[in-house]
Amino acid sequence: MSVFSGWRAAFRIARRDALRSKGRSALVVTMIALPVLGVTAADLTYRSALPTKAEELTADLGSADARFTDPGMGPVRLQQMPDGFTWQPPKDSPDPLPGDERKPVDVPASFPEGSRFLTEQSVPASVTTRHGVTDTQITELRVGDPMLRGRVELTDGAFPQTEDEIAATDAFIEASGLSIGDRVTVRGPQLGYTITGAVELPADLRDESLFAAPGAVIAPWRKAADRDKEILPPQATGRKWLVQGPAGAGVTWQDVLAANEGGVVVMSRQVALNPPPDSEVPMAADMYVWDDGGAAMTAAAVTVAAMAMLEIVLLAGPAFAVGARRSRRQLGLVGSCGGSRSQVRAVVLAGGAVLGGVGAVVGVGAGFGLTALFRPMIEDYTGNRFGELTVRPWEILGIAVLGLVTGVLAALAPAIVAGRQPVLESLTGRRGTRRSSRVLPVIGVIALGIGVALAVVGGVSGEINLVAGGSVLAELGVLGCIPVIVGFLGRLGRRLPLTPRIALRDAARNRGRTAPAVAAVMAAVAGSIAIATYTSSHAAEQAYDHIPNLTPGTAALMSTGVEEKADLPRMRAAVEQNYPVGGGKADIARVWAGSDCSVYYEEEDGCGTLEIVKPTGKGHSCPLQGKGAKELALRLSADEHKRLMNSPACMDADYTMVAFGTDDSKIVVGDAALLDSYVKLDDPAAAKALAAGTPVLLNSAYAKNSEITLKAVHTYNDRDKKNRAQHPGEARTTTDRLKVYVAPDSYAATPGIRVIMPQKTADRLGLHTEDYGSLYKLNRNPTDAERQTVSAAIEQAGHSAYVMTADEMSRSEDDTILLILALFAGVVTLGAAAITTGLSKADAEADLTTLSAVGAPPGVRRSLSGFQCLVVALTGVLLGTVAGIVPAVALRLTDLREALAGMRDNPMESAYTPIVMPWETIGLLALVVPVLAGLLAAALTSSRLTLARRAG
């Protein structure tokens, strides 16, 4: 018999065996098809969502041939790359003239003869919404022109035709609460427009903007600005021209070079798709080619694919092993009829090829179907429309081959075992005596130790490759130890009830199917725990380094008016009526000496200053500054460094928390209400001190003998006529010793405030004060609608104030990542446990029949399945948790190394790099998932068995 005929017979036997054992075959096909489905769908989605060069050009140009832009350099020669993004003046060109001396560029003169064009210009604006006002961008562009197809698409209504009409993107309409037919008012010039249509940008579905006809917004806004002596936002000066060249000619590279001579930059579709050789590009010689990281991405993709294949092999291998055992009589007949061991192995390998091929085909087909079905949802998630469903045939074929190879690899170990099986033992059904390898656990322990050592060394030295390699080696070492660990489980059931004792002994006796399932669970859980531990630790580090802008649960209304008096009463009423104010409110005033140059946002002669002179000596100077600071910082533990940084002496040493708008001195004028609503200081003595005219000091490092030194420079410039008239005379400097009430040290970190000064004290010292804003205690964070309503009130009151709320350390993204990791590991755990339980039932059918025959209660069968599932899931989760900690700790050691290097440069920097265990994720995986797996297995198992014939 030839080789081909032998394999043909093997495939025929494998096909019939697969059809005879439909349940096991479907299980293996599903295990192989699911990863193939995922990879196929991911490949199709990635290739389709990743725009081609032509699609990128359509997103920029629509159906136009080119975009001409004036970069603002004047009519001077430029150089550009064919992509139209990169440009520069030639190296030998003279320095450009100042902006006010540059001559205008006649951009339309550079168009190819016979071209048609559209103008485009954008401006940021504040517009009304159903709830209030919001910031957006208005683009003047005739979006109804066919030249814009592919870039702007109409989804509802009609394109704007007149100057009082406007189109809005779907995202803007949804966020603003408006609809077609509603009016939108542009704040500032108070121009009103009717929304006539809803549009979308296929390349950016989340864009929230408006489109108006050319000349409908910017020109009247500029006219109103000139009339009212206001300033139009500078972004409105940029203009672009979309050009459609002569029919069939497009815009060539020679047209681009000619436009460059006049100071115009061009993005041409024809040039970008068919770029000229570098010899014809003057700028090419000056370009540097950057490494795009493609090699690293390829390595990461190969690693992920290898791990996915390992998961499938670990899960599918026991299924083939059980199938080979159930077919051992058939394999024995092959041997008794003269079949060689290689032919017996071929039958099992053919089974892997058959099921792997079916799984690959099913997975690829399902991947195509699901991608097409969920395409709209994927487009909404990614924020851009697919141009076409992009299929790379060789990639799809490679994915299918991967599924086929995975099936063959999963059947490889069972095939080797079946080939070594004696013919007589196969025909009689005896399994013989099997001993576990004594070498494998030793190798596993050695690999585990070396892997942990490499990971730690890599973390300390900052070598990420060592961390990765050591972590993988450690995980492989644990894999080598799993058979011994599973065998040890059988000894733990001696004093347990019947079903858990049988489950543990069955797992130990059948390590060939238990160990790979445990390993698969361990591999999935290890990766999830590693990422979850690192994420939790990094989040804790960020929370430690976070500097709040306000005290928790508060909001601040602050005035920004410099030329005009802010209408604070009206704005306060808007906040109090619309924000969830909890009853606590404090009005504050700012205080300064001499001319306040910050009002004019520029440095001038004759500026007054006001500062608190910090005493020197122990308790006042921060030990982390000055001589010996580096040595001290490196000796301190993370907790000691943290306590020292939070001490009053170091609180303001490394940064100034300006927070809600106070100046560097952080002195505000207020009363006792500020203590309750913002500082959260419940101290009657402090309130009594303020009422008596005594300032309250929140940072004790500035006090000496309960006094502070206040230094004020009363200097006035010519521009500050108002304050100069009130305080004539020569410039003077005053230094006052003020008795203060010193708050406890825990209040030194209050954002934005160092001293609360009573109004009477400021008047006595000859300082200037001005009503500045209010601080509120909130019951909750305001909603978007409430924010827009308050913003509208501020706009109507002159746009001379702003409202800010206390920022919170958001863990939403981290929590989402942890949840996804837990769900992924949970699904793999449930799948592996279910697969093992099903194989156990199929493999131990004779034992279960014997139990029923000797009078075991019906519930034993169900509870046994539940405990078998629980054993696999719990063992894999615990081992995976231990294995996952290794790379997480190693990566945190790398972070610690970098933090210590930063501390050597600046002792004030924190080297706090905690290792925080994700106990919620671990608890979910270690308790909820195994128990759920056991309950599901018990619930889905029939408690009664029909004896069709004598077992065996």
TrEMBL record:
Source domain of life: Bacteria
Record keyword Transmembrane present: yes
Region (Disordered): 76-103
Membrane topology: Multi-pass membrane protein
Main location: membrane
Assigned keywords, A-Z: Cell membrane, Membrane, Transmembrane, Transmembrane helix
Keyword Transmembrane helix: yes
Positions of transmembrane segments: 299-323, 344-374, 394-418, 439-460, 472-493, 514-534, 817-839, 869-891, 911-940
Residues annotated as domain ABC3 transporter permease C-terminal: 304-421
InterPro entries: ABC3_permease_C (IPR003838), Membrane_comp_ABC_pdt (IPR038766)
UniProt cross-references to PANTHER family, sorted A to Z: BLL1001 PROTEIN, MEMBRANE COMPONENT OF PREDICTED ABC SUPERFAMILY METABOLITE UPTAKE TRANSPORTER
Stated name of the protein: FtsX-like permease family protein
